[in-house]
Every structure is written in C-alpha cells, then in structure tokens.
Structure prediction request, 533 residues.
Amino acid sequence: MNMVKEKEIHPSCFEPGMIIMNVCLSFFGAVIGLQIITTLGVTPNTSIIGVLVALIVSRIPITAFMKFKNIHRQNLVQTAISSSTFGAANSLLLPIAIPYLFGRIDLVWPMLIGATLGMSIDMCMLYWLFDTKAFPGKAAWPAGIAAAEAIKAGDKGGKQAMLLLYGIVGGIVGSILKIPMSALGITMIANMWAMFMFAVGLLLRGYSKDLFGIDMNALYIPHGFMIGAGIVAGIQILLVFLKKRKKDVNDIEQDDTPYTRDESSVRSSLIRGLILYIAAGTILAVLSGLYTQMSIGMFAGWVIYAAFACIMAEFIVGLSAMHSGWFPAFATSLIFLIIGILLGFPPVALALLVGFVASGGPAFADGGFDFRSGWLLRGMGKDPAFEIEGRYHQFVSAFIGFGVGAVTVALSHDMYFEQGLFPPVAKVFVATIQAGVDPTIIQNLVLWAVPGAILQALGGSTRQMGIMMATGLLIVSPAAGFTVIVGLLVRLLIIKKKGEEAMIPVTVMAAGCIAGDALYGFFNSLFRIGVKK
Prediction:
C-alpha cells in the first residue's frame, strides 16, 4: 500500500471565480470603509464579514460556489476584503483629505498616487518581513486568530465551533453592554507582559487628570514616550537582522524556532524597502511640484526623512498590532509630523509628508492579521513551501483589494469632500501644521522619550513593553484598561489551577469574543450611519 502523503496544493488567487469574489467583496469593503471613516472616524475590521460571506456562498449547491468550502479560499476572500477596507479608508482617503483641507485641491491626485505607492510598499515589506524573528507568524496578531478560528469552526464544526459560538455571543452581548470585549479576548491570547503594560498605559491616560491634575495628551507625553520606545524598537529590529544581538534573556520564545524567512533575505528586503520609499517620495515630490519650493539640500532631506519615517511608522504600528491588536496609526503619523515641523519643512511639504506616512501603517497591521490567519490555517509553518505558496496568494489577493480600493477612492472622493465628509483625524493634522509646535512641546517630547526608551530596552524585543505602554497612553479607553487587568487575573488563575493546557479552549472562546466585538462594531456602525441619514 502506498503510504506517501499527496502534497497539498494551495488554491490559486487567479482562479476566475476567486477573482470575481475578491473584486466584488473588495468593492463592498471599500465602500463600507469610506462611509464609516467619514461619518464615525473609525474603520471596521471586515475580515470576519468576508469569512461569513464565503461560508454562506459555499452552502449554495452550485459547483462554482461550493469551491468556497475550502478554508484557504475563504482565507483569500478574507484577505481581499479587509485589505480593501483599510486601504481605501485609512491609507488613501485620509491622506488625500489633508491637502484638500489645506486648501491645495491641486495636490489631491499627486497625494493619491503617493499614498497608493506608500500603501503598496508597506504591504511588500510586510510580505518580506512576516514570519521572521522581528514579526513572527507565531506572535499574537489577535484579529488574525479570530478570523482563522471562524474559518476552522465553519469547516469542522463540533466542540471547537460551539466554543467559538459562545465567544461570539459573549462578544456581542458584552459590546452591547459597553464592555470592550476585543480587549478581553486579546488579553487571553497575547503576551501577558505586553498586555499588562498596555493596560497601565490605558489607565494612566484615562485617570491622569484625576490622579495628577495633568492632561497627558495636551503635554504630548504619550507622543514623547512612543518616540523613545519606537527608536529603541527600531534598533532592536535592526540588531536582530544584523545578528549582533545576543540572545535576549527576557524573550519567552526560543531562538531555535524555525521561520520561513531567513535573516539574510530580510536584510536585503529592508534595503529594498528603503530604496522604494525614497523613489516613491521623490515621485510624490516631483508630481506635486514640491521640489520647486525647497533648496536641493532640503528637498533631499525631505525625501530621506519621509522614507525613514514610513519605515519607522510601520515598525511601530506593526509591533503594536502584533502584540495587542490595537495600532495607533494616526498618533504615530502625528509624531513624525511634529518632528517634521521641528526640522523646518514648509507647510505644504508637511501636508504631503504626513499623508505619505499615514498611507502605510494600517496596511502593514491589517496585512499581519491576514497573514497570521493564513499561517494558522496552513499548519503553522510546518510545511514551509506550502506556507510560502499560500502567503503569496494572500499577497496578491491583498493587492486586488488595494486596487479596487484605489479605484473606488479615485472615483468617489469628490462626492465625500463636496459634502464636507472627511476623516476627522485629517483635520487634526492640518490644524497641527497651521499652528506649528510650541518650544515646550519639544522639551516634553525629549523628556518623555527617555522613560519610553528605557522601558522598551528593559522589556526586550518580544515583550515590546515600551511600545505597548505608549500605545495605551495614546488611547482614551480606561474601561479597556480595567478589562485587560481582569482578563490577566483570570488567565493567571486558570494557569495556576489547571495549567497552560487549559488555555486552549479559552483561546478559542477569546477569538470568538474578538469576532463578536468586530461583528457588533460593524453592524452598529452601519446602523448609526442610517440614523444620521
């Protein structure tokens, strides 16, 4: 008897049915993303919606539809719709709203081209960096776990499906009761030290006025903290790739864990990414006529700084998303805008700079969630060739989503802007440029960068304690802080009483909580839009 196992072949993203499904759902995701970010100021996670649509379609008794019972096809659908949603709303509409609000409508199209390039390079860098020591596939990436568990539950059913269903119901009910259920779910999955520091940041931000009589945001304390933590995080990543870092005794994960990307290829990828960002920044500057407003030296400085800022922003946002599921993309862009002001770039250059930087981070974070889903569904890297093949098809699916999102924004942005509908944070960026930076802010940024850097260095590259505390400081949600603390206590109690094995079913329910929170947030946003109309 032949006992040789037949090699599994990953479904192709180029199948006609796959392309049609991805394009249709990507258009739906882009429209939803644009509508919600302009009316409510947030962007919903549509990954779970993509999974549900694929599951429903797969039950239609027609051969072309039944193909979507395959979990890997569902993963490609989920990747396309989420990429389109975040791409259209965060990476494209937000950047082009900045020059429009700045009174430079002539720069909207150059900014759209520059933002599309920035978003695309960001996704390429994630593709090159995912499942390396810096951004491992085995890290939390919580929203990715939620999507993967939903797909697996739909495929297998049974006890796992019931656990996921209980979690989804709990997530929806808790969200209705204003409990941040995604924070609870993430706490059961992510690194405990990272989540503890995240909670500390959330609580300090929420009660700084009551406890200390200071407004941390007005003093730019969170921003300074993130600058310090971000610089050290960038150094830690570079040291990993340069093989100059000794084994971090604080790291929980072992260095002998196999990765599907080796460090030599990643080093070359970082160089390629920097070159691509410099090229994209130059294209943006030329198309916008920016080169006519600055000296040659300042022009070169702007291009280099823009490229550096894009890479650092994607590292900060990616690390936050990887460990907590939350990513302070807007706040990170604001940090590099403030530094740009301090460097003396002219106002128009600053408007284009912050739009360019803002175009990338969300694509990196959302792509990380999608790749994590695929990594789990494909066997957690046990078959490296199959994993790389599947990740490639996800990569192409993401670009289908980006393409549909870009076309949707290009054709519809006038309709939103003429009605006075803009992403709220775009107004913050423009107001910051027009107001300039007070000298006292500079002092606060430098002062609070020091503890941020120290905490990040002490925590090591796995725990990301500085980045996570800074992320918490940038978010106003004390309720989430308390929820994380409660979740950590429950997790510790379960481990103490029953051991680590007992966390396996809890993790499935936690993924359900995240999915339930995402579903409630999605449909609640649609309902609120309907009420506004």
Remarks:
- Residues 16-208+216-245+261-493+502-532 form one domain.
- DSSP finds 21 helices and no strands in the chain.
- Confidence is low (pLDDT under 50) at residues 1-5, 244-255.
- The two ends are 67 Å apart (CA to CA).
